[in-house]
Write a structure and sequence with these properties.
Helices cover 51% and strands 13% of the residues. The protein is elongated and about 75 Å long.
Protein backbone atom coordinates (compact mmCIF):
# COMPACT_ATOMS: atom_id res chain seq x y z
CA UNK A 1 0.00 0.00 0.00
CA UNK A 2 3.02 2.33 0.15
CA UNK A 3 2.58 3.16 -3.53
CA UNK A 4 -0.76 4.83 -2.75
CA UNK A 5 0.98 7.89 -1.39
CA UNK A 6 3.10 8.08 -4.53
CA UNK A 7 0.06 8.68 -6.74
CA UNK A 8 -1.22 12.07 -7.79
CA UNK A 9 -4.84 11.52 -6.63
CA UNK A 10 -6.08 9.48 -3.66
CA UNK A 11 -9.80 9.16 -2.93
CA UNK A 12 -10.77 7.99 0.56
CA UNK A 13 -14.38 6.95 1.06
CA UNK A 14 -16.83 4.63 2.71
CA UNK A 15 -20.01 4.50 4.72
CA UNK A 16 -20.63 7.41 7.05
CA UNK A 17 -19.13 7.01 10.51
CA UNK A 18 -16.39 4.47 9.71
CA UNK A 19 -13.50 6.93 10.21
CA UNK A 20 -12.69 7.86 6.62
CA UNK A 21 -11.99 11.52 7.47
CA UNK A 22 -9.49 10.50 10.14
CA UNK A 23 -7.83 8.08 7.72
CA UNK A 24 -7.74 10.66 4.91
CA UNK A 25 -6.22 13.28 7.19
CA UNK A 26 -3.66 10.83 8.61
CA UNK A 27 -2.63 9.63 5.16
CA UNK A 28 -2.12 13.24 4.13
CA UNK A 29 0.03 13.81 7.23
CA UNK A 30 2.06 10.70 6.37
CA UNK A 31 2.60 11.81 2.76
CA UNK A 32 3.69 15.27 3.91
CA UNK A 33 6.07 13.67 6.40
CA UNK A 34 7.68 11.85 3.46
CA UNK A 35 8.29 15.11 1.68
CA UNK A 36 5.36 15.14 -0.75
CA UNK A 37 3.59 18.46 -1.16
CA UNK A 38 0.08 17.39 -0.18
CA UNK A 39 -3.38 18.91 -0.26
CA UNK A 40 -6.23 17.18 1.60
CA UNK A 41 -9.69 18.22 0.40
CA UNK A 42 -13.07 17.55 1.98
CA UNK A 43 -15.84 17.03 -0.59
CA UNK A 44 -18.41 16.07 2.03
CA UNK A 45 -21.15 18.74 2.44
CA UNK A 46 -21.17 17.81 6.16
CA UNK A 47 -17.52 18.67 6.67
CA UNK A 48 -15.51 17.13 9.50
CA UNK A 49 -11.97 17.56 8.16
CA UNK A 50 -11.45 20.75 10.14
CA UNK A 51 -12.70 18.95 13.26
CA UNK A 52 -10.17 16.16 12.69
CA UNK A 53 -7.30 18.66 12.52
CA UNK A 54 -8.91 20.84 15.22
CA UNK A 55 -8.42 23.80 12.90
CA UNK A 56 -10.87 26.09 11.15
CA UNK A 57 -10.89 25.37 7.41
CA UNK A 58 -12.68 27.00 4.52
CA UNK A 59 -12.64 27.07 0.74
CA UNK A 60 -9.03 28.30 0.46
CA UNK A 61 -6.05 26.02 1.22
CA UNK A 62 -4.67 26.48 4.74
CA UNK A 63 -1.15 25.40 5.69
CA UNK A 64 -1.30 23.01 8.66
CA UNK A 65 2.12 21.35 8.58
CA UNK A 66 5.20 21.59 6.38
CA UNK A 67 4.14 20.22 2.96
CA UNK A 68 0.49 19.91 4.06
CA UNK A 69 -2.46 22.15 3.16
CA UNK A 70 -6.16 21.47 3.70
CA UNK A 71 -9.46 22.91 2.50
CA UNK A 72 -13.18 22.21 2.72
CA UNK A 73 -15.15 22.78 -0.47
CA UNK A 74 -18.49 24.50 0.06
CA UNK A 75 -20.85 22.95 -2.54
CA UNK A 76 -23.42 25.72 -2.10
CA UNK A 77 -20.77 28.36 -2.79
CA UNK A 78 -19.70 26.42 -5.89
CA UNK A 79 -23.29 26.38 -7.14
CA UNK A 80 -23.64 30.12 -6.52
CA UNK A 81 -20.41 30.89 -8.37
CA UNK A 82 -21.39 28.64 -11.24
CA UNK A 83 -24.88 30.14 -11.61
CA UNK A 84 -23.45 33.64 -11.40
CA UNK A 85 -21.28 32.82 -14.40
CA UNK A 86 -24.24 31.35 -16.28
CA UNK A 87 -26.36 34.43 -15.60
CA UNK A 88 -23.53 36.70 -16.71
CA UNK A 89 -23.27 34.85 -20.01
CA UNK A 90 -27.02 34.69 -20.62
CA UNK A 91 -27.38 38.40 -19.83
CA UNK A 92 -25.46 39.12 -23.04
CA UNK A 93 -28.10 37.35 -25.11
CA UNK A 94 -31.34 37.94 -23.19
CA UNK A 95 -33.63 40.84 -23.96
CA UNK A 96 -34.26 43.07 -20.92
CA UNK A 97 -37.91 42.07 -20.56
CA UNK A 98 -36.83 38.43 -20.13
CA UNK A 99 -34.15 39.04 -17.49
CA UNK A 100 -36.44 38.71 -14.48
CA UNK A 101 -37.77 35.37 -15.71
CA UNK A 102 -34.29 34.13 -16.61
CA UNK A 103 -32.94 34.98 -13.16
CA UNK A 104 -35.97 33.33 -11.55
CA UNK A 105 -35.24 30.13 -13.49
CA UNK A 106 -31.62 30.26 -12.38
CA UNK A 107 -32.67 30.64 -8.74
CA UNK A 108 -34.95 27.61 -9.07
CA UNK A 109 -32.15 25.58 -10.65
CA UNK A 110 -30.16 25.80 -7.39
CA UNK A 111 -32.34 22.96 -6.09
CA UNK A 112 -32.39 20.92 -9.29
CA UNK A 113 -31.16 17.30 -9.06
CA UNK A 114 -27.49 17.09 -9.94
CA UNK A 115 -26.78 20.83 -9.70
CA UNK A 116 -24.65 20.60 -6.57
CA UNK A 117 -22.79 17.49 -7.77
CA UNK A 118 -22.08 19.10 -11.15
CA UNK A 119 -20.71 22.28 -9.54
CA UNK A 120 -18.67 20.23 -7.09
CA UNK A 121 -17.24 18.07 -9.86
CA UNK A 122 -16.23 21.16 -11.79
CA UNK A 123 -14.26 22.43 -8.78
CA UNK A 124 -12.62 19.03 -8.29
CA UNK A 125 -11.80 18.82 -11.97
CA UNK A 126 -10.06 22.18 -11.85
CA UNK A 127 -8.09 21.08 -8.80
CA UNK A 128 -7.03 17.90 -10.58
CA UNK A 129 -6.17 19.55 -13.89
CA UNK A 130 -5.05 23.09 -13.13
CA UNK A 131 -3.26 22.99 -9.79
CA UNK A 132 0.22 21.55 -10.32
CA UNK A 133 1.63 22.91 -7.05
CA UNK A 134 0.85 19.66 -5.16
CA UNK A 135 2.42 16.23 -5.59
CA UNK A 136 -0.60 14.51 -4.03
CA UNK A 137 -4.24 15.49 -3.53
CA UNK A 138 -6.15 13.42 -0.97
CA UNK A 139 -9.92 13.64 -1.26
CA UNK A 140 -11.94 13.01 1.89
CA UNK A 141 -15.18 12.10 0.17
CA UNK A 142 -18.80 12.17 1.22
CA UNK A 143 -20.55 8.92 2.28
CA UNK A 144 -20.49 6.27 -0.39
CA UNK A 145 -23.75 6.96 -2.24
CA UNK A 146 -22.90 10.63 -2.83
CA UNK A 147 -19.38 9.73 -3.91
CA UNK A 148 -20.56 7.13 -6.42
CA UNK A 149 -22.84 9.72 -7.99
CA UNK A 150 -20.00 12.21 -8.07
CA UNK A 151 -17.55 9.86 -9.74
CA UNK A 152 -20.06 8.42 -12.19
CA UNK A 153 -22.06 11.58 -12.89
CA UNK A 154 -23.85 11.02 -16.18
CA UNK A 155 -26.91 12.71 -14.71
CA UNK A 156 -25.04 15.77 -13.45
CA UNK A 157 -23.74 16.76 -16.85
CA UNK A 158 -27.19 16.23 -18.36
CA UNK A 159 -28.83 18.24 -15.57
CA UNK A 160 -26.50 21.17 -16.09
CA UNK A 161 -26.99 21.20 -19.85
CA UNK A 162 -30.75 20.86 -19.55
CA UNK A 163 -30.93 23.58 -16.90
CA UNK A 164 -28.97 26.01 -19.05
CA UNK A 165 -31.00 25.42 -22.20
CA UNK A 166 -34.49 24.55 -20.90
CA UNK A 167 -35.86 28.09 -20.92
CA UNK A 168 -35.23 28.46 -24.65
CA UNK A 169 -35.29 25.01 -26.19
CA UNK A 170 -37.85 26.25 -28.71
CA UNK A 171 -35.33 28.70 -30.08
CA UNK A 172 -34.25 27.67 -33.56
CA UNK A 173 -30.62 28.58 -32.97
CA UNK A 174 -30.43 26.82 -29.60
CA UNK A 175 -32.06 23.86 -31.29
CA UNK A 176 -28.99 23.82 -33.51
CA UNK A 177 -26.80 23.80 -30.39
CA UNK A 178 -28.63 20.77 -29.06
CA UNK A 179 -28.37 19.10 -32.43
CA UNK A 180 -24.62 19.65 -32.48
CA UNK A 181 -24.08 18.61 -28.88
CA UNK A 182 -26.58 15.77 -28.55
CA UNK A 183 -27.27 14.08 -31.87
CA UNK A 184 -30.56 12.16 -31.92
CA UNK A 185 -31.52 13.89 -28.63
CA UNK A 186 -28.60 12.26 -26.88
CA UNK A 187 -29.78 8.69 -27.40
CA UNK A 188 -26.60 7.77 -29.25
CA UNK A 189 -24.32 9.07 -26.49
CA UNK A 190 -23.64 6.48 -23.84
CA UNK A 191 -21.92 8.84 -21.41
CA UNK A 192 -21.10 12.56 -21.18
CA UNK A 193 -17.53 11.42 -20.51
CA UNK A 194 -17.23 9.78 -23.92
CA UNK A 195 -14.50 11.30 -26.05
CA UNK A 196 -15.87 14.64 -27.29
CA UNK A 197 -16.14 14.86 -31.03
CA UNK A 198 -15.24 17.97 -32.92
CA UNK A 199 -18.65 19.40 -33.69
CA UNK A 200 -18.76 22.01 -36.45
CA UNK A 201 -20.44 25.27 -35.52
CA UNK A 202 -20.02 27.33 -38.68
CA UNK A 203 -23.78 27.58 -39.17
CA UNK A 204 -24.52 28.94 -35.68
CA UNK A 205 -25.00 32.60 -34.84
CA UNK A 206 -22.86 34.34 -32.20
CA UNK A 207 -25.27 33.59 -29.34
CA UNK A 208 -25.61 29.91 -30.11
CA UNK A 209 -21.89 29.54 -30.81
CA UNK A 210 -20.99 31.12 -27.45
CA UNK A 211 -23.29 28.78 -25.52
CA UNK A 212 -22.12 25.78 -27.51
CA UNK A 213 -18.49 26.63 -26.79
CA UNK A 214 -19.27 26.87 -23.07
CA UNK A 215 -20.94 23.47 -23.06
CA UNK A 216 -18.15 21.88 -25.07
CA UNK A 217 -15.48 23.35 -22.80
CA UNK A 218 -17.21 22.01 -19.71
CA UNK A 219 -17.71 18.62 -21.28
CA UNK A 220 -13.99 18.48 -22.15
CA UNK A 221 -13.13 19.45 -18.57
CA UNK A 222 -15.24 16.61 -17.19
CA UNK A 223 -13.84 14.19 -19.74
CA UNK A 224 -10.23 15.05 -18.85
CA UNK A 225 -10.95 14.74 -15.14
CA UNK A 226 -12.71 11.42 -15.69
CA UNK A 227 -9.71 10.16 -17.65
CA UNK A 228 -7.41 10.98 -14.74
CA UNK A 229 -9.72 9.37 -12.20
CA UNK A 230 -9.71 6.17 -14.26
CA UNK A 231 -5.93 6.08 -14.75
CA UNK A 232 -4.50 3.63 -12.15
CA UNK A 233 -1.04 5.11 -12.53
CA UNK A 234 -2.36 8.45 -11.34
CA UNK A 235 -5.44 7.82 -9.20
CA UNK A 236 -6.66 5.23 -6.67
CA UNK A 237 -9.70 4.83 -4.43
CA UNK A 238 -9.29 3.51 -0.88
CA UNK A 239 -12.33 2.31 1.03
CA UNK A 240 -12.50 2.59 4.80
CA UNK A 241 -14.82 0.20 6.63
CA UNK A 242 -15.42 -1.29 10.05
CA UNK A 243 -15.98 -5.01 10.80
CA UNK A 244 -19.76 -4.69 10.98
CA UNK A 245 -22.56 -5.98 8.80
CA UNK A 246 -23.75 -2.80 7.09
CA UNK A 247 -20.32 -1.39 6.20
CA UNK A 248 -19.37 -4.80 4.75
CA UNK A 249 -22.47 -4.90 2.56
CA UNK A 250 -22.07 -1.32 1.39
CA UNK A 251 -18.36 -1.64 0.70
CA UNK A 252 -18.77 -4.82 -1.33
CA UNK A 253 -21.46 -3.16 -3.48
CA UNK A 254 -19.44 0.01 -3.87
CA UNK A 255 -16.26 -1.79 -4.88
CA UNK A 256 -18.20 -3.50 -7.65
CA UNK A 257 -19.81 -0.23 -8.76
CA UNK A 258 -16.50 1.59 -8.99
CA UNK A 259 -14.81 -1.26 -10.81
CA UNK A 260 -17.71 -1.43 -13.26
CA UNK A 261 -17.25 2.31 -13.83
CA UNK A 262 -13.53 1.81 -14.46
CA UNK A 263 -12.36 3.55 -11.28
CA UNK A 264 -9.29 1.77 -9.82
CA UNK A 265 -9.77 0.53 -6.24
CA UNK A 266 -6.58 0.09 -4.22
CA UNK A 267 -7.96 -1.68 -1.18
CA UNK A 268 -10.25 -1.64 1.85
CA UNK A 269 -8.86 -0.50 5.17
CA UNK A 270 -10.58 -2.29 8.06
CA UNK A 271 -10.76 0.26 10.85
CA UNK A 272 -11.47 -0.08 14.60
CA UNK A 273 -10.63 -3.75 14.99
CA UNK A 274 -10.78 -4.69 18.67
CA UNK A 275 -7.24 -5.31 19.94
CA UNK A 276 -6.38 -8.80 21.16
CA UNK A 277 -5.33 -7.45 24.56
CA UNK A 278 -8.62 -5.62 25.15
CA UNK A 279 -10.04 -7.14 28.34
CA UNK A 280 -13.47 -7.68 29.81
CA UNK A 281 -16.32 -10.08 29.07
CA UNK A 282 -18.16 -7.54 26.92
CA UNK A 283 -15.20 -7.02 24.62
CA UNK A 284 -14.57 -10.77 24.49
CA UNK A 285 -18.07 -11.34 23.14
CA UNK A 286 -17.74 -8.45 20.71
CA UNK A 287 -14.45 -9.90 19.49
CA UNK A 288 -16.08 -13.26 18.84
CA UNK A 289 -18.73 -11.61 16.66
CA UNK A 290 -16.11 -9.42 15.02
CA UNK A 291 -14.05 -12.46 14.02
CA UNK A 292 -16.98 -13.65 11.91
CA UNK A 293 -17.20 -10.28 10.18
CA UNK A 294 -13.46 -10.22 9.57
CA UNK A 295 -13.70 -13.64 7.96
CA UNK A 296 -16.54 -12.37 5.79
CA UNK A 297 -14.47 -9.36 4.75
CA UNK A 298 -11.60 -11.67 3.79
CA UNK A 299 -14.00 -13.74 1.71
CA UNK A 300 -15.94 -10.97 -0.04
CA UNK A 301 -12.98 -8.65 -0.66
CA UNK A 302 -10.36 -11.32 -1.25
CA UNK A 303 -9.14 -9.60 -4.41
CA UNK A 304 -8.17 -6.43 -2.51
CA UNK A 305 -5.52 -5.61 0.09
CA UNK A 306 -7.21 -5.38 3.50
CA UNK A 307 -4.95 -3.67 6.04
CA UNK A 308 -6.29 -3.25 9.57
CA UNK A 309 -6.19 -0.56 12.22
CA UNK A 310 -7.09 -1.17 15.86
CA UNK A 311 -9.90 0.39 17.81
CA UNK A 312 -8.34 3.16 19.91
CA UNK A 313 -9.18 4.07 23.47
CA UNK A 314 -9.97 7.69 22.55
CA UNK A 315 -11.03 9.79 19.57
CA UNK A 316 -8.44 10.99 17.09
CA UNK A 317 -8.54 14.78 17.04
CA UNK A 318 -5.84 17.35 16.51
CA UNK A 319 -2.55 17.31 14.65
CA UNK A 320 -0.65 15.39 17.35
CA UNK A 321 -3.22 12.59 17.32
CA UNK A 322 -3.17 12.50 13.52
CA UNK A 323 0.61 12.27 13.57
CA UNK A 324 0.29 9.22 15.80
CA UNK A 325 -2.37 7.75 13.50
CA UNK A 326 -0.05 8.35 10.53
CA UNK A 327 2.58 6.23 12.27
CA UNK A 328 0.02 3.45 12.77
CA UNK A 329 -0.83 3.60 9.07
CA UNK A 330 2.84 3.35 8.22
CA UNK A 331 3.12 0.26 10.42
CA UNK A 332 0.07 -1.17 8.63
CA UNK A 333 1.91 -0.96 5.32
CA UNK A 334 1.16 2.49 3.94
Amino acid sequence: MKELLEKRLLWVGGKGGVGKTTVAASLAVLAARRGRKTLVVSTDPAHSLGDAFDRKLDDAPRRLLPNLDALEIDPDAEVEAHLKGVISQLRRFTVPRMMDEMERQMRLSRQSPGTQEAALLERLARLMLDDESYDLIVFDTAPTGHTLRLLSLPEAMAAWTDGLLAHSRKSEELGKVLKHLTPKSGQDISSPFAEPEEEGMSDLDDRARSIAETLKHRRRLFHQARRRIKNPEESQFLFVMTPERLPILETARSVKSLKDAGVPVAGALVNRVIPEDADGEFLRKRREQESLYLARIDEELAALPRPRLPLLASDVQGIDALEEMASRLETAGF
